[in-house]
Amino acid sequence: MAAPKKGRSASAQSKPGRSLALILIAIVALTGGMFASGHKTPRLGIDLAGGTSITLRAVPEAGQESAINKTNMNTAVDIMERRVNGLGVSEAEVQTQGDRNIIVNIPKGTNSKSAREQVGTTAKLYFRPVLATEVSGSAATASPSPSASSSAKAGDKATGTSSSSPSASSSPSASATTQGRSVTDALKADATPSGSASASSSASAKASSSASPSASSSSSASAAAAALEAQYTALDCSKASARATAGKTAKPTDSTVACGKNSQGAWQKYVLGPAAVDGTDVKKSQAVFNTQTAAGWTVTMDFTGKGSKKFADITGKLAQNQSPQNQFAIVLDGEVVSDPYVSQALTGGSAEISGSFDQTEAQSLANMLSYGALPLTFKEDSVTTVTAALGGEQLKAGLIAGAIGLALVVIYLLLFYRGLSVIAIPSLLVSAILTYVIMALLGPTIGFALNLPAVCGAIVAIGITADSFIVFFERIRDEIREGRSLRPAVERAWPRARRTILVSDFVSFLAAAVLFIVTVGKVQGFAFTLGLTTVLDVVVVFLFTKPLMTILARRKFFANGHKWSGLDPKALGAKPPLRSTRRPTRPAGPVDPKEA
């Protein structure tokens, strides 16, 4: 069994080109991916690219100190991310700091004043009746009732069904004109319902008089309805600029247009009536898995006493209408996050929204509904503006520091290791290429942004990488000092050096991981970069440095110990192996006194 093992080891040692080919293929593949993604440089953080950093502090209402908790803070972060993204700023960062602070970093190129207004105000949640809707950009596709039409049952646990999938069951007669009527007609119908809905028309007419006038309304109100119809017709929710303004400034008592995303990922536009229920009327909302039916994940809502009456009134009116006017839109910050329909008045003070939810979607909707009732406001603690010029200076200073550190390492290698620097310098270059390419790919993939602490982490990594080379070289020199030739010295030194390198890198990676977990903000950039470069150090040493050393050990320049190779036995103080000599043995017998 011993002989085959030795043969495999010798075979692996004789083919170091495989390892070099593997790392070369990895570099080519990653570089190709970088160019294919269109991101040829790492994404810069706010301290290098410039922008605005806002620190918000959560302030609870009187007697509601317990409202500041992890769940509520995370929900607030989600809401603020939606707001900033609504401005078309996908690179913005929103994260908690401590137990009551939220940090919002907005890069340059954004209207920072508008962004400050967006993230610093309390979210506004409303329940509005749907008057008309269609997929944005579609010629004639109204939002239909879903195919799974479970009915709403009155009682303590009434249910509604989500219609967030407009393509699931389209109504043939429904169109952008709301079943043959214009948006203006829909506004009038909302104020003056016919048939069995006439009993509840007075409250609806009063609530929607500003944008849904009856035949006797003033000409100015009619003009407002016509303007709303024109606005709805022109609205294209597939454009970020349109979504950023649609319905954002509408008063609760006004009809408005809005945008929302359906489960197929398509943007849908709506005409919505005046708000019937406020977010503060929701006492509690949570995502639950319904094991009694096939509904799966659902979202339950419990209303306050006042909210229960409001919700019963609006659902009673909506239940008498045809699709899509039997739906109500849950609107957060002017965006529709859900549009369930009802078929019966929900009078129990609670409701359940069911549909094709998964756990994440149900939890997200429940959090948004709960946020409307959070007794939290946010106050600005600080606003820091970093100009692009200052960021450029910081980046330049960081790159200069890195270049100086790299130059000192190269000079040290040339002076003390001479020819071995032919191995160390290309290894540093390979490590730098891998680090750069991976950072460029991580920007669009996970949102990694290269900030100044991350640059510092990359500079520190130069020393970590060089240290691994030095450990390996010194082990080889130790073997040569013991009288071994170079090729056996390399193979005997590698297992000892490998253990030392792995232990050292493990300690560095553990420190980086702990630092990443226990810190927030920019310090995490330092920890992440340090951990990444530590892992790459192991990859480079195993797949590049060691195989390259094995190949060069076969060359006469290194194998014969040239004085500039860095492996000269004489310069290293190597001693030839000690050879013991034996004295001639004497024959047994008496010793001659003369010889003694």
Question: How is this structure best described in words?
Answer:
- Helix content is 48%, strand content 16%.
- It is of the alpha+beta class and 596 residues long.
- The strands form three sheets. A five-stranded mixed β-barrel has the order 4-7-6-12-11, surrounded by four helices. A four-stranded antiparallel β-sheet has the order 2-3-1-14. Strands 5-13-10-9 form a four-stranded mixed β-sheet.
- A hairpin with a 3-residue loop joins strand 2 (93-97) and strand 3.
- Helix 13 packs antiparallel against helix 14 (452-481).
- Residues 1-12, 138-181 and 192-216 have low confidence and may be disordered.
Q: How much is the average pLDDT? A: 75
Strand content: 15-25%
Biggest β-sheet strands, sense, barrel: 5 strands, mixed, barrel
Placed side by side, the strands forming the largest sheet appear as: 4-7-6-12-11
Helix content: 40-55%
Structural class: alpha+beta
Annotation, overall tally of beta strands: 14
> What is the 3D form?
elongated
